[in-house]
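User: My instructor asked us to take a sequence, write out its structure as tokens, and then describe one feature of it. I'm not sure where to start. Here is the sequence I was given:
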Amino acid sequence: MTVGCIIPAAGRGERMGRGQPKALRTLAGASLLEHAVRAMAASRQVVHIVVAAPPDQVASTGSLMGSLRIDARVDVVAGGETRTDSVRLGMAAMPETCTTILVHDAARPLVPIDVVDRVAAAVEDGAPAVVPVVPISDTVKQVDEAGQVVRTVDRSELRAAQTPQGFSADVLRNALAGEDLDATDDAGLVERAGYPVLVVPGDQEAMKVTRPLDLLVAEAIVRRRSGRVH
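Assistant: Let's start with the prediction itself. The structure tokens for your sequence are:
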């Protein structure tokens, strides 16, 4: 198995406020993107990483990636207007020798290596698509357009999806060739294309940095990992 990874990082991340694209926001002295690339390269299974960057920052992102001391090869391409566009462009730059493709959010900078390895191994074992998940701890309410609660959803069968999500390269290519490409994650496209999706355990530390408060939580995780707990 040869594993490649696509990191769509062209989004602006409006919920983080104005400023740099979210993937380039700083966490513990490095950008979220740098952390995410290092996290993926920490798995010895990942040999090739393609970053889909903002079109006007391809050169600067390439220089940033070139400064990383990692074993995996990293290429930078211009991303698209949507996440799916960026994944498609990243897939076009991925060598055909990569038969397993992971797609990882730049906004999940601290995913543990165990999660990466679990996802890749499940694809190697024959699953066409794999998603790491964690249980939902909050009570979930279904609400109508008027703001009224319709029902309380049984959370025992609900899971929150994380990344990296893993796919057979052919399965992901087929899903990206479909007509209905409006999905919040890549597994959704694969589901629509008719393929089964397997879940494996994720990790709470693979949290998504979406809002400024999330950066504070991520900073605390970095401090704990480095032994600098205050």
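For the description part of your assignment, you could build on this observation: The first helix runs from residue 32 to 41. Try explaining in your own words what that tells you about the chain.
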